[in-house]
Specification:
Radius of gyration: 17 Å
Distance between the termini: 9 Å
Number of strands: 8
Low-confidence stretches: none
Strand content: 5-15%
Shape: globular
CATH class: Alpha Beta
């Protein structure tokens, strides 16, 4: 990774953990990584936790005296109104969140999030000073067909205007090959680096050279303590979006320590 960019490990808990689990998680994380709870300057890498929506307030209270960032797994396409079950970007921001995950493949595949909805979610996030983490990535058939790069570039191109706006603050893209999410199969570090370089090149060509240099690029897909350093040492990968392994606070601490060792 480039030392000029501030690295980020983002934990996506998905639909997991209950109230007591989260309390115990934070207690363990505090014991394992006290530097994230001290009064000194925030350590590297940055740590972001994205719990289920209903526990954002709880997590914020538990981490109030820490350097740990909080984020949402989703925001509505609408600013407010008669949309039963939805949670607006304004509500998420009101809880003190910093980031929001948008365009995750599970949202695209299971909940029919198309590019128009993704664009509206990004716009809502930006309007309320939330930093979107845009997820992109190809399925196995596309990878085997040799067109993974074109597929990911098309996903980026569909969000060109909101990405241009996001680049004025902080542009974060998570490359998550669909075939590696929750399967135990992870992309080789060299393949992940190749895609990250392609994404950075696309940003440079379509937004600006400064945006390309500054963009934070994460890898996600069966990241765990045993392999995270392989990705973290790649020149265009600035961190990770972590699913299953982030549910164990000791594994999360181990990944933080591993990345800190690289830095």
């Amino acid at each position: 990774m480039n030392s000029k960019r501030r690295p980020l490990l983002a934990a996506n808990w998905k639909q997991n953990l209950l109230w007591q689990d989260i309390e115990e998680y934070c207690e363990t994380l505090r014991a394992e990584m006290p530097e994230y709870f001290g009064e000194d300057e925030a350590p590297l890498p940055d740590l972001l936790i994205c719990p289920p929506l209903c526990y954002l307030g709880l997590l914020g209270a538990l981490l109030e005296d820490s350097h740990v960032l909080s984020g949402s797994q989703l925001v509505s396409t609408e600013d407010g109104g008669a949309f039963t079950g939805e949670v607006s970007a304004a509500m998420v921001a009101d809880l003190g969140c910093d980031y929001v995950i948008i365009g995750h493949s599970e949202r695209r595949q299971l909940f029919s999030d198309n590019e128009e909805r993704i664009s509206r979610r990004i716009q809502q996030a930006l309007e309320h000073d939330l930093l979107p983490i845009l997820c992109v990535g190809e399925d196995l058939e596309t990878r085997r067909g040799g067109s993974a790069g074109e597929y990911v570039q098309a996903q980026l191109a569909a969000q060109l205007e909101p990405l241009r706006t996001a680049a004025q603050q902080e542009l974060v893209i998570a490359y998550e090959p669909i075939w590696a999410i929750g399967t135990g199969e992870n992309a080789a570090a060299a393949d992940a680096q190749q895609m990250a370089a392609l994404i950075r090149g696309w940003i440079t060509s379509n937004i600006s050279a400064a945006a390309g240099e500054a963009a934070l690029l994460l890898y996600g897909g069966s990241v765990k303590p045993g392999n995270i350093s392989e990705y973290f040492t790649q020149p265009d990968i600035d961190g990770a979006l972590i699913g299953g392994a982030s549910l164990n606070p000791r594994d999360m601490a181990a990944m933080l320590r591993s990345c800190a060792g690289v830095l």
